[in-house]
Write a structure and sequence with these properties.
Alpha-D-Glucose-1,6-Bisphosphate, Chain A, domain 3; 2 domains; 4-stranded mixed beta sheet; 11 strands
Length: 263
């Protein structure tokens, strides 16, 4: 079957491919990304691809179509499952993958989703994303060839790597973490279990509707209700770097009113 696909013009952005699911982004787009990016990996001399996805409701569907497209390029695809984007980057590095794709809507509203990519261990952006769109529209992909799929659970080793960077020794911590119902929830549960002290986790459950607040942590107003209950909290964007502050981070008993889970 001849392949060609045109993306919505608004979805090909500078640093990712992103759109509104059901309007400017679909499973067909995900398949085309797998088919076209997979061809770029092959033409770059690569054979392996690592794929992960976040906690949005549309992510499993998009990841499935993405993997199908990549497999048709003859790639060996490793699925690392649901988790935060840095976990996908960790898997790409430790598995020495030739390419990596994360299905994630990042900090956008729940009806958005998208794709972040790496090629040969380096960011894939700008002119490369534009080229992907052009190759897809032209149907300029490698000949269809059956690849393979396997699953790899890297969560425990990823958490172990995060904890390795903790510099606080045996000092007892008291920390409030806000997961924001994000895909980091399962990683956070493992992380706080490995750290010393007492931890309160807010909005721990992974929920792609983001019932607690908007997923963009740069919008200060989303923390208004939490800051009213918690002296200091730690949002989940600190996960890539586990160097802790030198002073204690305290919590109050009123944090329980934020839907907190004590660890």
């Amino acid at each position: 079957m001849t392949f060609s696909h045109n993306f919505d013009a608004t979805s090909l952005r500078e640093y990712d491919i992103r759109g509104i699911v059901g309007k400017t982004l679909s499973a067909e787009d995900a398949f085309a990304i797998g088919r076209t990016f997979g061809s770029m990996v092959r033409r770059n001399g690569g054979r392996t691809l690592v794929v992960g996805y976040d906690g949005r409701l549309s992510s499993p569907m998009l990841e499935e179509a993405l993997v199908q497209g990549a497999v048709e390029c003859g790639l060996e695809v490793t699925r690392v499952g649901r988790g935060p984007t840095p976990m996908l980057y960790y898997a790409s590095a430790t598995l020495e993958a030739d390419g990596a794709i994360m299905v994630t809507g990042s900090h956008n509203p729940p009806d958005y989703n998208g794709f972040k990519m790496m090629l040969a261990g380096k960011p894939f952006f700008g002119a490369q994303i534009k080229e992907l769109g052009e190759l897809s529209a032209q149907g300029n992909v490698v000949a269809r060839e059956d690849g393979s799929v396997r699953e790899a659970d890297v969560r425990d080793e990823y958490v172990a790597r995060l904890v390795k960077d903790y510099v606080g020794g045996s000092r007892k911590l008291k920390i409030v973490w806000d997961n924001g119902n994000s895909s980091a929830g399962e990683i956070l549960e493992k992380l706080v279990a490995a750290l010393p002290g007492e931890h309160i986790v807010l909005n721990a459950a992974i929920d792609g509707t983001f019932p607690a607040h908007h997923p963009d942590p740069t919008v200060a107003r989303i923390f208004s209700s939490l800051s009213a209950s918690c002296v200091i909290m730690v949002p989940m964007w600190v996960l890539p770097s586990m160097a802790m502050p030198t002073g204690s981070v305290w919590w109050t008993t009123r944090a329980k009113s934020c839907g907190a889970t004590r660890r």
